Amino acid sequence: MPKPRTPEQQSSDPAAQEMLQRAEKLGISTAFSRADDMAPCNIGGPGMCCKLCGMGPCRLTKEGQTGVCGATIDTIQARNLVRAIAAGSAAHSDHGRDMAFLLKAVAHGEAEGYMLRDIAKLRRVAAIYDIPIDGRAPEEIANDLADLYIAQFGQQSGELAPVRRAPKKRQQIWREQGVVPRGVDREVVESLHRTHMGDDQDAEHILNHAIRTGLADGWGGSMIATDISDILFGTPAPIVGQANLGVLKANMVNVIVHGHEPTLSQMIVAASQDPEIIAYAKAAGAEGINLSGICCTANEILVRQGIPVAGNFLHQELAIITGAVEAVVVDVQCIMQALVELAAKFHTKIITTSPKVRIKGAKHIQFEEHKALTIAKEILRTAIDNYQYRGEIQIPDIRADLVPGFSHEYINYMLGGTYRGSFRPLNDAIMSGRIRGVAAIVGCNNPRTTQDYVHNYVARELLKQDVLLVQTGCGAIASGKIGLLLGEAGLDQVGPGLREICETVGIPPVLHMGSCVDNTRILTVLTQVVEEGGLGDDIDQVPAVGLAPEWMSEKALAIATYCVASGAYVIFGGASPVSGMPDKVSDSDAVLKYISEGWEKIYGGKLEFIPDPDEMIQAVLQHIDKKRAALGLPAYDPKRFGQSGDARMRQLEQLPLAERQAALYGGKK
Ligand code: BF8
Fold first, then answer.
1. Do residues 407 and 513 make contact, with C-beta atoms less than 8 angstroms apart?
2. CA 358 → CA 211, 298, 342, 361, 572, distances in Å?
3. Distance, CA 388 to ligand 1 centroid (Å)?
4. Which candidate among 193, 237, 392, 577 keeps its CA 20 to 30 Å from the CA of 595?
5. Which atom of ligand 1 lies closest to the CA of 312?
6. What is the per-residue pLDDT across 623-649, written as a single tens digit (0 to 9) for each?
7. What is the 293 CA–ligand 1 centroid distance (Å)?
8. Are 434 and 541 in contact (CB under 8 A)?
9. What would the pLDDT profile of 480-533 be if each residue is shown by its tens digit?
C-alpha cells in the first residue's frame, strides 16, 4: 500500500490543504484519502473488463485472450467507451430536455418566478430554425422554439436541427460518414443496443456510433441547454465574482448550491434576496443569507449574477468540513454520495431536489417549476432553521476575485462593439501571430491527481506561449482561484503578443465561458472564427486544442467526442479508459489508436491521453504550430510583439528621464 499523500500532494489549493489538515485532525475521510486508500482497478480502469452479460464478468489480462463469448479486447474497450460516452451525452442532454420543458412552461405562464429574460437571443435562435419572429409576442416565439427543441430528443429520422449551425464543410463530412444524429434519445439508445451482448462487434463500427452519440450531445442536448439558459436567465457578460472557500461567511447562513441545472439555483438566488427571507435569517441570529455554489450550478449563477463560487468538484466535501455550511442543495450530476455521511458529522443538511436524484439520509424537497420560488424559499428557511445548530467553524481566509461571463455573444461584441461586432480582430491576431493559437482547458478535478495542479500548470505555461485560453466547468474555477480570470492582474504572466491583445480589448487572458454544457459556446466560437475567414474553412484548420487535464466524468468523454467529431485535437490528462495491457502499448491498443489516428483521418480531430503536463504542453504547441503552417501563417515569433501600447510604456518607465524623453520626443527636452 503506497504511503498516503500529504495535503500539499493532494491539492495545490491552499484553502483545500487547510481543510484536508482539518479533516485529518478530525479523523474524517475525503475523496482524497479514499483515493489514496483504494488503488484504481487495473483491469476495469483501462476498459478490459466486460460485465455486459451473465457469462462474465470477463477480465482480460493477457494478449490474445477473449471473453467467454469470444469478444476481443478491442471490442470490449470500444463497447465500454461508447457506453460511457452515451451516459455522458444522456446526462447533458436530459438537462437540455428539462430546460426545453421549462421554456414551454414559461411561454405558457405556468412557471412561477421565471421570465423570458433575453428576448434578443430568443429571436436570434428562433430565426436560425426559420421560426417566424416578426410581429409575434416573445411567448409565441418561445412556445414554438420549445416545441422544436423538445422534438429533437424524440426525433426518429432526419437530422438534429442545431447541426445546421456547424460550418458547411463539417456538416458535409458528417453526412458522408453517416453520423449526423437523428434524435438525441435515439443515438443514446442505439449505443446501449449496439453494446448489448451479441450485437455490434467491430470496434471501429462501434466507435463510429460514439461519434454520432457525442454529436447528439454537443450539437443537440447541450446546445439546447445553453440556448435556453441564456433566454431564461440572461446571456452572460463580464461580471465581478469571487472563488474559493473564503467566500463562506462566519456570521451568515451559508447555503451552497451544487450540481448542474440553473433552474432551481436561479430561483434560490432570487429567494435569497427576498426581504422576508433576509428578515427570517436575522431573526435566527445571523447577519443574513450567504449563497455560493460548487461545480457547474456555481458556474451558471456566477456567470450571470456574480454569485461567489465556493469551489470546484473536489471542494464539495471540504466546504462541509468548514463547519460553516447550513445546507448543501443539490440537483443533478457530480454529487458525491459521501456528502450525507460527512454532513452528519457537522450540522449541515444535504437537500436533494431533483426527482431523478435521491441520496439515502438526505432531506428531499422536490423542485417543481410551477411553484419554484415558493420551494426555493422553503429550502432557504430549512437552512436558516439549521443555523442554531452550528458548532465550531474554520473557514480558510482564501478567496480570489475573478471576472467570468464570456459568452460567444459577448466575445463577438467585445471585439467589435455593438455596431460592428465581429471575430475579425481575433482572427487577425491569430493570423499575425500575436495570438499563437487558442486552447480550451475544461473539465473536472480528479482526486487521483493533485487538485488543480495540472490545470493551472498547463494554463500558466500556455499563456506564456501567447495561447489565448477559454475555459468552462471546474477548469475555469481552478484558474479563477489563482487569479487568472482577473483582467490585467494576470497579464504579467502572459506572452507579449497575447498581452497586447488583452490590453487593447480589455479582457483577461483566460475567458470563463460557463458551465460544462456551455462547451457548446466554444463550438460556436470556432464556427464563427471559420466563418469570419482567414483561418480555413472548417474547424479542424483552426490552430486550436481542447484539454481536460484532470478529467473524471463520463460527460467529459462525451464532450471530447463531439469536439473531435467537430475537428478538434483533444488531450486528456490522467488515466486512459482504453489503454491496453497495464503499462504497455501493444496490439491491444487498437481502440486507442483508432480514436487518435483513425478519427483524425476522418474528422481532422483526435483524442489522446497524455498524463505528463510538460508533454501535454508540447503536444498543444506542436499542433498549433502545425495548423499555423498548414494555413500559411507566419511561424510564431514572440520577439515580434510586445513593443506597442502599454508594453512600450512599461519599457520606457524603466529608463532614466533623459533617455525616456529622448525615446519619446526624439531628443527634444
Ligand atoms: O459538468 S467539470 S467535475 S462539475 S463533469 Fe463535474 Fe467535471 Fe466539474 Fe460540471 Ni463538468
1. yes
2. 31, 20, 16, 9, 31
3. 33
4. 193
5. 8
6. 999 999 999 999 998 888 876 656 666
7. 13
8. no
9. 999 999 876 667 789 999 998 888 888 889 999 999 999 999 999 999 999 999
Residues contacting residue 19 through CB under 8 Å, at least 6 positions apart: 245, 318, 321, 322, 394, 396
Question: Exposure string (b/e) for 523-540, b if CB count within 10 Å is 16 or more?
Answer: bbbbbbbbebeebbebbb
Count CB-CB contacts under 10 A for residue 196.
11
221: which 3 cell numbers? 442536448
Tell me, what's the pLDDT at 415?
Answer: 76
Per the rule left: phi > 0, alpha: psi between -120 and 50, beta: everything else, 232 is alpha
Binding site membership of 443 for ligand 1 (Cβ less than 6 Å): yes
Q: Is there a contact between 430 and 624 (Cβ–Cβ < 8 Å)? A: no
**pLDDT at residue 460 greater than cutoff 60:** yes
**Pocket lining: 444 vs ligand 1, CB cutoff 6 Å:** yes
Q: What is the pLDDT of residue 64?
A: 86
Give the residue carrying C-alpha cell 487547510.
18
Ligand 1 atom at minimal distance to the Cα of residue 472: 2
Question: Is it the case that residue 667 has pLDDT exceeding 60?
Answer: no
Ligand 1 center from residue 518 Cα (angstroms): 11
Using DSSP, state whether 360 is helix, strand or coil.
coil
Tens-digit pLDDT profile for residues 600-615: 999 999 999 999 999 9
| Ligand 1 pocket check for 617: Cβ under 6 Å | no
Specify the pTM: 0.94
| Residue given cell 481502440 in the structure block | 591
